[in-house]
Amino acid sequence: MNPSALPVYRHIANALTARLDSGEFPPGSRLPAVRALAAEFGVNTLTALAAYRYLEQQQRVLARPRAGYFAALPAAPSLPGSAAPLPSAAALVDVSSRMSTLLQLGDERIHSQLHMAEAAASLYPAAELARRLQLTLTRQPELIGAHLPAGEQRRLLAALVRLGHERGLVLDEGGILLTHGITEGISLALRHLTRPGDTVAVETPVYFGLLQTLEGLGLKALEIPCTPEAGLSLEALEFALHHGPAVKCLVCVPNFQNPTGALMPDEHKKRLLALARKHGVTIIEDDVFGDLHYGNGRPTPLKAWDRDGDVIYCASFTKSFAPSFRLGWLAAGRHHGALARLCASSTLVSSPLLQVVLADVLDSGDYARISQRLRQQLAAQMTATADAVLQHFPRGTRVRRPQGGVVLWVECPETVDSTRLLQRALAEGISFAPGVAFSAAPRFGHCLRINCGQPFTPALAAAIARLGQLALGN
Fold first, then answer.
1. All residues at 6 or more sequence positions from 406 whose CB lies less than 8 Å from its CB, including other chains
2. pTM value?
């Protein structure tokens, strides 16, 4: 079409596209309001709105309800021979689509998948668990269609009490709730403690799934800085509690935080409890990665120093034992009754068969054996991955080697845009999680999270080397 024949809204869209391409509006940044855009170009608001809607169709901008328009990136190109394009990295700017977008990167066309926080299926004892399931079902076929028998339930709860005792927790069987993984436990706790419009303090960078959960519940996230060295900044939290909006609760991961891998020192954990008690803030503790420690001693949960029963402790076997089981549990102290009622209306019952198998594994001591082997493999993979990143990524790249978990947080020089890097990497069959996914604000654009749960094969080494080359040219 002759440029002079373009409608006015297209001229406005083209002008905005040029400003986006120039970097005036980086990914995730807020664009001028519709009225402001209309005034800038001397048009009515409907014409300005038409320009934004056109750019939204082109995946250059994203609309957020009641918030306005935000800068995105062009759609990712299709891989050669692919039937449909892969998800656009631009979608990661929108909080509500981050989880679904990253899950779609599990596409078989991505040969080096480094975007999720999980260990490879080959690292789990699949054959052993299959035999256990078959044996349990042969002995107790009624588990297919029944609720968990009371005796089996008591056996599982007693095993969890013992497991908690090993972590320094003082629990009783009546104070434990079983959940579908840790996400459900955290969601239940948030539903109990908050109402739509409330503010919840979280770490930043923060796991994108938590941001999506908060958004789904109509909650506001107050992001408190978290460093790879010591975890949540207590000074920043105290300042926010004194001078910021009223905070209903805090969600934190003291042991191997996602995505930084930070381990909070024990003294900081005690200070955090004292600070929360002083301000009347309930803590929801996410301990999903605690069992994946590389050293001999498991880090102590925050809950171990809780004398008021106010910490809601959430744990899971998803990362450390059997991802597909989706078995989690929580200990909520004085909040137990309210959470038990919510849990009954939400879950009603978890799989009796899987719970009996878990009880057998905990009773036999096999869980300790299985998790020890997994930890050793993860530690070796983490070392190899960190070494490869430092060897191939641009000079000035910083990596803090975590003491546990399955992710590596990489801080590239400020000149690297990790979202644009993902665009280029997807075209070559490599994925990772860009830093912009770990905040509701346009932060961490030069950072990325790499999954270290995959065996460090020559193919993976080559993928990281190629990723480093792409970063050098970014």
1. 117, 118, 119, 289, 292, 319, 378, 451, 452, 453
2. 0.82
